[in-house]
Records
---
Amino acid sequence: MKIFIVGGGIAGLSIAWRLAQAGAEVEVLERGIAGRGATWASAGMIAPGAELGAESSAMAAFAERARAAWPSFAADVEAASGMPVYYKECGCLLVAATAERAATLQAAACPDSGAVWLTREELLHREPLLDASLLGALQIATDAQVDNRALAEALRAAAMKAGARLRERCSVRSVLIDKGRVSGVIADDGVIAGDIVVLSGGAWMGLLEGMDADVVPPVQPVKGQMAACEPPPGTVLPQSLIWSESIYLVPRHNRLFIGATVENAGFDTSVTHEARDWLLDAAARVIPSLRSWRVAELWAGLRPRTPDHAPVLGTTSIDGLLVAGGQFRNGILFAPVVGETISRAILQNSMSPDLSAFDPKRFAKSA
Ligand SMILES: Cc1cc2nc3c(=O)[nH]c(=O)nc-3n(C[C@H](O)[C@H](O)[C@H](O)COP(=O)(O)OP(=O)(O)OC[C@H]3O[C@@H](n4cnc5c(N)ncnc54)[C@H](O)[C@@H]3O)c2cc1C
C-alpha cells in the first residue's frame, strides 16, 4: 500500500513519521521546502490555557489531549532525530492592564488546574521587565512552547530515518480518482500512482484542481504577521509566555517573539510597516524597555481556518482520500494527536467517536 501525504508542514510530517514508524510505505510530496509554511511562521506555543481557557468544547478536549501528549512527543522526536526541539514548560501569564480584565482573569483562576492569580507585586517579582502599571496576571502553569522551526527539521529527520520518503519542489495539482477511489496524484511532472492520499496542504488545501467542494473541506488562509526583537546584552528575557489583550510575547533563545496580526488577506504573505508598528507598540505597553530593542526579524504566515474554526481530520467521501487540516491557530499544539489520529485511521481504519466534531464531511451540502 503506497501512501502519499500532500504537504510537508507539521501535520504532514507528523503523519508521515507515525506511518513510517509503523512500517508503512509513505512519501511526502511538498511543493516547496518541508516545514516552511505556517509551521515555520508560527510562534510555537503549546498553549491551550491561553488560547481556549476553560472552554468545554470538543476542541478544548482535543487540545488538552494534545498538550498532555507533548512531553513524550518532544522526547520521541528528539530521540528519533538526534536533534533538539527546545520543548519547554514555561507557563503563561495573561496580564491585566484594566480592572475589567483583571476581574475576568481572577474569576478564571482555578489553582487545582494550575491557573493562579498573581498580584502586581508577585508578577513584577517574577517578570521585572513588565510594565509596573499592570494590575496582575493569571498564571497558567501547564502552557508550554517548542521551537517550531527546529521541530520541523527534527520531524523531517525522524520521518526520513523511519523510512518515509520526501519529494520537495513537487507541487500536486490534483488527486486521481477512479470509480470513487483514489488511484494517485497528478503532480507538475506527471501522474504518480498510489493507494491512499492525505491532504495536509495547510491554507492551500482548497486549491487542488477539479476537487468537488463536498469532498475537500473549505479551508481559508488567515494571515499572521510577527516580529522578533533582541534586547541589549545583559537583559534577562521573561521566563513565561505573556499574553496581553491584543498580543502575545514568546521568549525563545535570545529573542522575544511578538505576535500576531489576524488578517483576511488571501494568500499574501508580505510584511507591512503598519503591522510592525502595531506589534511593537502593543508589546511596548507590556514591556516598556522594548522600544529600544533591535528588531531582528519580521515575517508572515497563513493559518488554515475552516468556517467553524475547528480542524478537519479523517476520511472523506472518496475511498482512500483523507484530510488533515484546518488547525488554524493551534497546529503546533495539535501535532502529536494529528499524527496519531491519521495514522490510526489509515492503518487500523479507526477514528475515535470523540473526533466526530472534526469530520471533514461536516461541510458537505448533504451533511
Ligand atoms: C503567525 C502565526 C503564529 C502561529 N502561532 C501558533 C502557535 O503559537 N501555536 C500553534 O499551535 N499554532 C500556531 N500557528 C498555527 C500553526 O502554525 C498552523 O496551524 C500549522 O502550522 C498548520 O500546519 P500544516 O502542516 O497544516 O500547514 P503548513 O505548515 O502551512 O504546511 C502545509 C504545506 O503544504 C504544502 N502544500 C500546499 N499545497 C500543496 C500542493 N498542492 N502540493 C504540495 N505541497 C503543498 C505547503 O507548501 C506547506 O509546506 C500560528 C500560525 C501563524 C501564521
Note: Residues 184 and 194 are 4 Å apart (CA to CA).
---
Amino acid sequence: MIALSACLLGYNCRYDGKSKKNLALIKLLESEKILPICPEQLGGLKTPRARSNLVGGDGFDVLDGNAKVINTYGDDNTKAFIKGAYAALDMIRAHNIERCFLKDKSPSCGVGEKYLTGVTAALLIRKGYIVEEVS
Ligand code: SF4
C-alpha cells in the first residue's frame, strides 16, 4: 500500500483550495491501494488557508524546535504542522505503508529536492519510510 499526498490525487486540499492532480502518477499507481493524506488538514488547518513557509530551517529543524512555520499573515502554524505530521505518521503506521509519494515544494510534504524538506516528509524520513517527491 502506498501513501500519497491527497492533492496529487485530485483532492482540493491545497492552501488555495485547489488540487495538483497528477494523472500520470494516478495511472502509474492504478493497481496499487492508495492512502491519501493531507498533513495540513490533519493538523487542523482550514481550506483554503494562507500559504505557509518554513522559517529558520527545514522540516527537521521544525521537529527539533529550531525553526517555525509561518503563514503570509505572520501567524505561527508550527504546532498545526507538527500535529499534522504526527497524524499522517499514525495513519501510515496503521495501514502498513511501504512507500510514500509526496508533493514537492510544500512546507509539509516536500522532500527537499526542489525546496526545503517539509515537516511531514522530515518525520517520515526520520522514521525510516521511503519518500519520493512528485510534482
Ligand atoms: S502538499 Fe501535502 S499538505 Fe499540501 S495540500 Fe498537498 S497533501 Fe496537503
Note: Residues 5-7, 13-14, 38-40, 103, 106, 108-109 surround iron/sulfur cluster (CB under 6 Å).
